[in-house]
Amino acid sequence: MNNKQKLVVVTGGTGFIASHIISQLLQQNYRVRTTVRSLAKTELVKTMLTNSGISDFANLEFV
Hints:
This protein is of the alpha/beta class. The chain is built from two helices and three strands, in the order E-H-E-H-E. Strand 2, helix 2 and strand 3 form a beta-alpha-beta unit. The protein has one domain: 3-Layer(aba) Sandwich (Rossmann fold), CATH 3.40.50. Strands 1-2-3 form a three-stranded parallel sheet, with helices on one face. The radius of gyration is 11 Å and the shape is globular. Helices cover 35% and strands 17% of the residues.
């Protein structure tokens, strides 16, 4: 099984540490599901990830 098929859940997706973990996981082709208190915060997370070089959010899911 390659990394793209593995799902990793990261809690607190809007946090500083979580955003760095999510970035690393996406760069390694993992599927990432992250929790946020409000789905309105998803754009904030995407902006943080864009600033770290992530441009493809196909493997990112918010709950």
